[in-house]
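Lab notebook page, bench 4
Experiment: in silico fold of construct C2
Operator: M.H.
Input chain length: 338 residues
Purpose: comparison with the prior construct
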Amino acid sequence: MGLSEHMGSLRRIAVALTGLVAVTVVGTVGYLILGFPLLEAVYQTVTTVSTVGFREVQPLSPAGVVFTIVLIVVGVGTVLYNLGVVLEALTEGHLRRYLERRRMDHRISHLRGHVIVCGHGRVGRSAADHLLADGQQVVVVDTDPDRLVGLRPTAVHLVGNVTDDAVLRAAGIEHARALVAALETDADTVYVTLSARAMRPDLVIVARARTAEAKEKMLLAGATRAVNPQNIGGRRMAAFALQPDVAEFLDVVMQDEHLDFRIQQVRVEPGSSLSGRTLAELDLHERTGALVLALRATPQNDLQAKPPSGTTICDGAVLIALGTPAELEALSRLGTPG
């Protein structure tokens, strides 16, 4: 059930309960006007609307009889409507799904720095599995609830259409670190990219493109990176054919979470001990054990492989380093103020 269906079910329940309360209030006020004390007016209203059939607490005048007849007709109809709505919610699973949606909303509201995966097909599922294996917080969104069956318990899921801005907000886009768009069509992916970029100008957006032309459009729409899985797969196959050991090494480093070493990017925050100093001065390999493979001086610059020792590290620079988790953690601490 999608987000809009949940809201529709909730609205029906709210309308039913509002009608029941209104009938009770009107009945109580009517009996007060007829001269009943407050407690007896409430009691007479409840017994009448619920069709319990107890005697009247006070003799009714002709006006009281007419009022009671009207209250029975309106009240019984309202009670039956409430009963139907509740039974529908129970038999069709609306209530269970609503409570599950509430739990998911509560979990999402507490997430910070998570990744939103839009679309849980083959590409989206692979991306979500890799992120979860790396210990990242993930919110998976898809229109088909059957695709979300079997998700890891650590993953939060949301059934809805991400082309709707309300669904992106429900997925916590305001506090996300990145969004992976892997939808069924390039048109939907471009639309989501445009919407996400408008809502979060600083968000990292990775879009799946099915064609080279679509890749260019996604970059124009605001994607940080546009990826064609078929092209990447073909290149990897060629790499395994020509340089199998190199390709295997990169595969292991990037995808095996149980390995003792990995490649990771480290951002240099303003005020950190790395900022404003050269690589030679810092001697990062000696201090942390991590090996700096590449450097991006600013977001606008290209990656520089094997940066010279005289390169000065500026605020906002990104280091690509190879090392064990402990070594990379030590490097990350150096890139953080304090």
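Observations: The chain has a mean pLDDT of 84. Residues 268 and 335 are 5 Å apart (CA to CA).
Next step: discuss at group meeting.
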